[in-house]
Design brief:
The complex is a heterodimer of chains A (about 600) and B (about 450). Chain A has about 600 residues and is an alpha+beta fold. Chain A contains 16 helices and 26 strands. Chain A has 4 domains: about 70 residues, Elongation Factor Tu (Ef-tu), domain 3; about 80 residues, OB fold (Dihydrolipoamide Acetyltransferase, E2P), CATH 2.40.50.100; about 240 residues, Rossmann fold (3-Layer(aba) Sandwich), CATH 3.40.50.300; about 140 residues, Bovine Mitochondrial F1-ATPase, ATP Synthase Beta Chain, Chain D, domain3, CATH 1.10.1140.10. In chain A, helix 12 runs antiparallel to helix 13 and helix 13 runs parallel beside helix 16. The N and C termini of chain A lie far apart (about 100 Å). Chain B has an 8-stranded mixed β-sheet, sandwiched between helices. Chain B has a 7-stranded antiparallel β-sheet with strand order 1-7-4-5-6-3-2, with no helix packed on it. A 3-stranded antiparallel β-sheet of chain B has the order 12-11-14, with no helix packed on it. The chains are: A alpha+beta (about 600), B alpha/beta (about 450). Chains A and B meet through strand 1, helix 1, helix 4, helix 6 and helix 11 of A and strand 5, helix 6, helix 7 and helix 10 of B. Strand 1 of chain A pairs antiparallel with strand 5 of chain B. Adenosine-5'-triphosphate (ATP) sits at the interface of chains A and B.
């Protein structure tokens, strides 16, 4: 332990002397109140420390103690279902201690150190152990089997003294290695350091989100990275909530970074009540929340992202598919900017530090699908919200983020104003994963590729026509082109729009997604041929079928795909009739 | 209070004063600077090193001459004296009585900066507040514990609307006798505006339940930085300790932000957009996030901040960052105002995010959500048809588009518009919404289910 002394306090950045022997990024206890902090710069003038708690009342002369270790997460059973602040302090436990408001200086253990977990060893004395080896398992929640891992930092060797099955706390010794390293249910890992894996795997399997516009048009892979940029109120948080609820990841890490308190409360109060369609258990059992809301200290906001990704990597290393929601990466970038300003660093674009793109890259790089050290396969998918000032995507955070993600779900203000949700623009969004996912979809549902392609083409055509319509009105277009507008409307209302509040439609199974779109595209194909045969457009616009197709999404539940097939047959019959009528007329 | 005074101010720049440090002054501490003019100016420590202290004054430094000035460190941050006696009183921005009566009797003081509420201690707000204004109740409902700002512009009737909301707001499910209070913070507004609110409170007989913090246009601009914090400290006391439902009106947040920009410039900080400091977002959040409900407490804090959008520009940093923090926004639109629509609440850009959990069966009515969604969708179409009509002429529009135009006229004149003293029940509002939909063909109503159409859409006579 090295003790120094505060020489200057200016907001959350504190300068201290006498810490020459401490390391950069060491954790420190700052001041008489022993607030949590981290050394972020060392130079001739002393150690610069960022303080993770509100430090009003702190002054020069007060002590600073370096704990001689980097800022770390404690990884072990007890994470699932928790809500943490940016530096992994358990918010529920803090509430018990200090009441409804966060009082600086209150301490809370990162994991419950008294609780006993039932541990079933998978190794016995004499077995070999290496970084990432699964030592045994603990049933953490009813849906998450916690695989207790040998820390990535240990040296390979043999197990000495493995305990038997039984109840242990996270800090109890469960084994020792031949080299004398102690193994416990939990281990420490530095937040800013990526956890190692064996090798990266290609992102060839989709992360199914249950949102049609994503899964069909702009899909994301397991281990992929997506950005959701949009002005205020366009639906970033709702999109992330929906994905966190219904996506087919095993584990969800939800980071509320500089956003609203009520949104975290919403998750905290709603998720336990929601049932995971795959496991039949509460969604909270696979979810952990990191909440460093906008009014909480800005330095801890900067770290919250790393805390989140470290927890995610840890579960990835157990062989799970993990999805991380980061809402919002812009607030994280602003925290960087604010701290950089206080350090009087040279600002680059719009006041952001020059290292902003590097930090963003490092963050997104921690996602991916990998072979784990322990021999399994796991993935971390990252979905980052971006909150561009004025909703203008040309600003630095959006622009740099674009370089490091491969899926861009652009939220459109006009769609949001018309309450077309999710307001994901089909013209500005893209996904680079669609090619890699072809093989998977071909095996599961070969129609995906076809309907997707045709729908995208049609929407593109509609976009061009809209430009003309804006100048001359739709009536001036030939019927075939007007049909494009009609089908595009049908795609929008019957397929793209999906309300999170519709009991049936809030989650859409992949099968239903493809069937719905196939129906609509079939409508288009048949209608086009009838029109070519000479039918007037009104024959199509007056079909009650149109309204029915629009409503299928919320009238047919996921478990009744046959109802959509029935609608498809009805559609065929209607058009067969029209066909007969007009083929005859054109023959005459 | 240490009671030690000493001299030796070395430099003053704008509201910033640099003093030699001779004792244990700490970050965030309150200090009093005495000028030769004998005036006591409060300020807080914003930067403290072993030898030097930077103070930011809360008041004007004109007339403050450096030699002969003295500083007194008070040993605590800026505090507000709280007690039931707050009700019915008027204070300045720093929390000193300005109504001619003495300080309130209470030994309890609270740091005006408050502490962040633990997200695990919040209760998600769900109780619908009926305001009697259709555009709000029907399409952008207000919820107890919500922060819902009014985005306005010069000359638009935001004060009249805010006063109408305060006058008419009530909770539906017959809990009428719950204790309530109104906290009003005026920052840089003119005396007339403050007078308007006082009169309005007086007329509706609630003045004795109002606490006012006024830092009017003629008060030092820097005092505005404290005003909302004093107000919210009072609100937190009333809500969480006395269990009251508190409605907080903060006006005009634009003046607050400009004061923040002034101080930031004086500190030569790297500016972000339009000269505002990079921490404007976090700073505003430390105000707006002080709305909500806490588990185990009966009270609540509902915030209605009012701000004027410079040049009616919603992407200006002040409305933009506010919208990123608050739970929606009521946007006033000049175009509607020019058509004499009162209240000129924009039909598309307004939003209430907490609406989703506070409406529907058992709260308002089963059709509320879908009906609102349908009205938004239809009105969005009206806007694009109007654009088209401006180019090709109204006569050239398709029959369907003409119907939309027709709908739009009625919607603005009958649904959005209402009297300043007209109080519509939510059921009236919902029925009115359905009546508007009769101007459109049934097949267009895809956002509402056939069952709801059957039940609520008035049958044509
Ligand atoms: N998929 C959806 N289904 C239904 N409603 C939605 C959907 N997405 C967004 N909304 C509506 O839009 C509102 C705003 O959405 P949300 O809070 O997600 O915006 P945001 O982009 O996160 O905004 P901010 O940047 O200010 O946090 C919601 O409260 C809800 O009313
Ligand atoms: Mg959001």
């Amino acid at each position: 332990m090295i003790e120094g002394k505060i020489i200057r306090v200016a907001g959350p950045v504190v300068l201290a002397s006498g810490l020459g022997g401490a390391g950069l990024y060491d954790v420190v206890e700052v001041g008489i109140a022993k607030l949590a902090g981290e050394i972020i710069r060392m130079d001739g003038s002393g150690a610069t420390i960022q303080v993770y708690e509100e430090n009003t009342g702190m002054g020069p002369g007060e002590p600073v103690i370096s704990l001689g270790r980097p800022l770390s997460a404690l990884l072990g059973p007890g994470i699932m279902g928790s809500i943490y602040d940016g530096i992994q302090r358990p918010l529920s436990a803090l509430k018990e201690k200090s009441g409804d408001f966060l009082i600086p200086g209150v301490k809370g253990e990162r994991l419950d150190i008294e609780r006993r977990w039932h541990f079933e060893p998978r190794l016995k004395t004499g077995d070999s152990v290496a970084p990432g080896t699964v030592l045994g398992v603990v049933q953490e929640t009813s849906v998450v089997e916690h695989r207790v891992l040998a820390p990535p930092g240990i040296k390979p060797g043999l197990i000495k003294d493995m305990v038997g099955a039984g109840d242990y706390t996270v800090l109890d010794t469960i084994a020792e290695t031949g080299r004398g390293e102690v193994l416990r249910l939990a281990h420490e890992w530095p937040l800013r350091k990526p956890r190692p894996s064996l090798r990266r795997l290609p992102p060839t399997e989709p992360l199914i989100t249950g949102l049609r516009v994503i899964d069909v048009l702009f899909p994301i892979s397991k281990g992929g990275a997506a950005a959701v940029p949009g002005g205020f109120g366009t639906g970033k948080t709702m999109t992330q909530h929906a994905i966190a609820k219904w996506c087919n990841a095993d584990i969800i890490v939800y980071v509320g970074c500089g956003e609203r308190g009520n949104e975290m409360t919403d998750v905290l109060q709603e998720f336990p009540k929601l049932v995971d369609p795959r496991t039949g258990r509460s969604l909270m059992e696979r979810t952990v929340l990191i909440a460093n809301t906008s009014n909480m200290p800005v330095a801890a906001r900067e770290v919250s992202i790393y805390t989140g990704i470290t927890l995610a990597e840890y579960y990835r290393d157990m062989g799970y598919g993990v999805a991380v929601m980061a809402d919002s990466t812009s607030r994280w970038a602003e925290a960087l900017r604010e701290l950089s300003g206080r350090l009087e660093e040279m600002p680059a674009e719009e006041g952001f530090p020059a290292y902003l793109p590097t930090r963003l890259a490092e963050f997104y790089e921690r996602g991916g699908r990998v072979d784990t050290l322990g021999g399994g396969e796991g993935s971390v998918s990252i979905i980052g919200a971006v909150s561009p000032p004025g909703g203008d995507f040309s600003e630095p955070v959006t622009q740099h983020t674009k370089r490091f993600i491969r899926c861009f779900w652009a939220l459109d203000r006009d769609l949001a104003y018309a309450r077309h949700y999710p307001a994901i623009s089909w013209t500005d969004s893209y996904s680079e994963y669609s090619e890699e996912l072809l093989a998977w979809w071909d095996a599961v549902n070969p129609d995906w590729k076809n309907v997707r392609k045709r729908a995208l083409e049609l929407l593109k055509k509609e976009q061009r026509l809209e430009q003309i319509v804006r100048l001359i009105g739709p009536d001036a277009l030939p019927d075939e082109q007007r049909l494009v507008l009609i089908t595009a409307d049908l795609i929008k209302s019957g397929f793209l729009q999906q309300s999170s509040f519709d009991d049936i439609d809030k989650y859409c199974s992949p099968e239903k997604q493809v069937l719905l779109l196939r129906c609509i595209m079939e409508f288009h194909r048949r209608a086009e041929s009838v029109i070519k045969a000479g039918a007037p457009l009104v024959k199509i616009t007056s079909l009650p079928l149109r309204e029915k197709l629009s409503r299928l999404k919320s009238t047919v539940p996921n478990d009744r795909p046959e109802d959509i097939r029935a609608a498809e047959r009805e559609l065929a019959a209607v058009f067969d009739d029209l066909d007969r009528q007009y083929r005859k007329e054109s023959l005459r | 209070m240490r009671g030690i005074e000493h001299r030796g101010l070395t430099l003053a720049e704008g509201p910033i004063v640099i003093a030699e440090r001779r004792e244990n002054s700490t970050y965030g501490e309150l200090a009093a600077v005495y000028g030769r003019d004998g005036v006591r100016r409060l300020g807080k420590v914003i930067d403290v090193s072993e030898k030097v202290v930077a103070l930011q004054l809360f008041s004007d430094n004109t007339g403050l001459s450096l030699d002969g000035a003295a500083v007194e460190y008070l040993g605590h941050p800026l505090e507000l004296r709280v007690g039931p006696g707050l009700l019915g009183r008027v204070f300045n921005g720093l929390g000193h009585p300005s109504d001619g009566y003495p300080e309130i009797i209470s030994s309890e003081r609270r740091d005006v900066n408050g502490q962040p509420l633990n997200p695990a201690a919040r209760v998600y707000p769900r109780d619908f507040i009926e305001t009697g204004v259709s555009a709000i109740d029907g399409m952008n409902t207000l919820i107890r514990g919500q922060k819902l700002p009014i985005f306005s512009g010069n000359g638009l009737p935001h004060n009249r609307l805010a006063a109408q909301i305060v006058r008419q707001a009530r909770i539906l499910a017959g809990s009428g006798d719950e204790p309530f209070a109104i906290v009003f913070a005026g920052m840089g507004i003119k005396y007339d505006a403050a007078r308007f609110f006082i009169d309005s409170f007086e007329k509706s007989g609630v003045l004795s339940r109002v606490v006012m913090f006024l830092s009017l246009a003629d008060a030092p601009s820097i005092e505005r930085l404290v005003t909302p914090r004093s107000a919210l400290t009072a609100a937190e006391y009333l809500a969480y300790e006395l269990g009251m439902h508190v409605l907080v009106v903060l006006t005009d947040m634009t003046n607050y932000c400009e004061a923040l920009r002034e101080v930031s410039a004086a500190r030569s900080e790297v500016p972000s957009r339009k000269g505002f400091p990079g921490y404007l977002y976090s700073d505003l959040a430390s105000i707006y996030e002080r709305a909500g409900k806490i588990e185990g407490s009966k009270g609540s804090i509902t915030q209605i901040p009012i701000l004027s959008m410079p040049d009616d520009d919603i992407s200006h940093p002040i409305p933009d960052l506010t919208g990123y923090i608050t739970e929606g926004q009521i946007v006033l639109e000049r175009e509607l105002f020019q058509k004499s629509v009162y209240p000129p609440i924009a039909g598309l850009s307004s939003l209430s995010r907490l609406m989703k959990d506070g409406i529907g069966e058992g709260m308002t009515r089963e059709d509320h959500r879908d009906l609102a969604s349908q009205l938004f969708a239809a009105y969005a179409r009206v806007k694009s048809v109007r654009n088209l009509a401006a180019i090709i002429g109204e006569e050239e529009l398709s029959p369907l588009d003409k119907k939309y135009l027709h709908f739009g006229e009625h919607f603005e004149a009958e649904y959005l518009a209402q009297g300043e003293f007209e109080d519509r029940s939510v059921v009236q509002t919902l029925d009115l919404g359905w009546r508007m939909l009769t101007y459109l063909p049934k097949e267009e109503l895809l956002r509402v289910s056939p069952a709801l159409i059957e039940k609520y859409l008035p049958k044509e006579a």
